[in-house]
Design goal:
The protein has about 300 residues and is α/β, with parallel strands linked by helices. Helix content is about 50%, strand content about 15%. The radius of gyration is 25 Å and the shape is elongated. The N and C termini lie far apart (about 55 Å).
Length: about 300
């Protein structure tokens, strides 16, 4: 099994659109090149612009499994790659110790017993190792900017070889390199060495027409006027100097909330009642409430 052989970026765009993800030409081209060149795709942008959603859409159009590694401060190789199942190893030792035949041997038998502790059945494969073993697959390394420099260095080595070495078992290499998507919210700068290994894609907030199309694809029963009002107001909120400007995900949630309440347009009363779908910080909530009329009618 291998990844689909899309003829050109237009074919990729059509497939993504059919999967519910509306890409710009730049997104479709970056995905096409990442698949053809077998290079990781480094996707950077503000929260909520569709970075993780892109990986999910790629999983659907490729018909493969998604393996996701959520990064966080202090993550290390054992959480990303593999670990040994210590409780099962202990049970194995106890079972061997209670077996009269096993207890009768000498040093050779003890050596065999110790070696058996590191059998493949006791290895717990984490997302990166699973992606190498089970590829073709989409490997999503989400929010790499939350991890530290040491983890970046480890990741760089794995991406360079598409293989890892488990000392007790040997080298495990991917027959087909996984389609790797690395996302960053840019809370810190990621080192150039990692970026050089990847194709770079910046995801900006969509323009008005594209955001309307995205929301209508996700909330198809919402009124046309309502979707346009929500997309327009969300765009204004992004220029309102908020602590957390709304992303596309919040725009979709807002339209969905309003539609659920039966709204056919966005007026001040409906907006005030559903602000929690689009504004996520108390300071932003107060600021938006004070200028709600201007934001809706400006």
């Amino acid at each position: 099994m291998s990844f689909p052989d899309f003829a050109d970026p237009t074919a990729v765009a059509d497939a993504l659109e059919a999967a519910g993800y509306l890409p710009s030409p730049g997104i479709a081209t970056a995905v096409f090149l990442a698949m053809r060149m077998h290079r990781p795709l480094f996707v950077e942008g503000d929260p909520g612009v569709g970075k993780t959603a892109l990986a999910h859409a790629l999983t659907e159009i490729c018909g493969v499994r998604l393996l996701r590694l959520q990064c966080y401060e202090g993550i290390d190789a054992s959480q990303a790659l593999y670990d040994w199942d210590f409780p099962r190893q202990i049970l194995h030792l106890r079972a061997a110790g209670s077996d009269p035949a096993a207890g009768a041997g000498g040093a050779g038998d003890r050596g065999d017993l110790e070696a058996s502790l590191y059998d493949r059945r006791f290895l717990i494969a984490r997302p990166i190792l699973l992606a190498l073993e089970q590829s073709p697959a989409v490997l999503l390394i989400d929010e790499i900017d939350r991890a530290d420099d040491e983890f970046e260095a480890f990741l760089l080595e794995v991406l360079a070889e598409n293989a890892v070495t488990v000392p007790e078992l040997g080298t495990i290499a991917a027959d087909v390199p996984p389609l790797t998507v690395i996302t960053s919210n840019r809370t810190r700068e990621v080192h150039d060495a990692l970026k050089r290994r990847c194709l770079y894609l910046w995801l900006a907030h969509p323009d008005f027409d594209r955001e309307v199309a995205i929301v209508r694809s996700r909330v198809p029963d919402a009124a046309v006027r309502l979707v346009a009002d929500v997309a327009r107001t969300a765009g204004r909120l992004r220029t309102a100097d908020l602590l957390k400007p709304p992303g596309v995900a919040e725009t979709i949630d807002w339209a969905h909330a309003l539609h659920t309440l039966g709204a056919s347009r966005l007026d001040e009363e409906a907006a005030r009642a559903t602000l929690g779908a689009v504004v996520k910080y108390r300071e932003d909530f107060v600021r938006v409430e004070r200028s709600l009329g201007e934001l809706l009618g400006g």
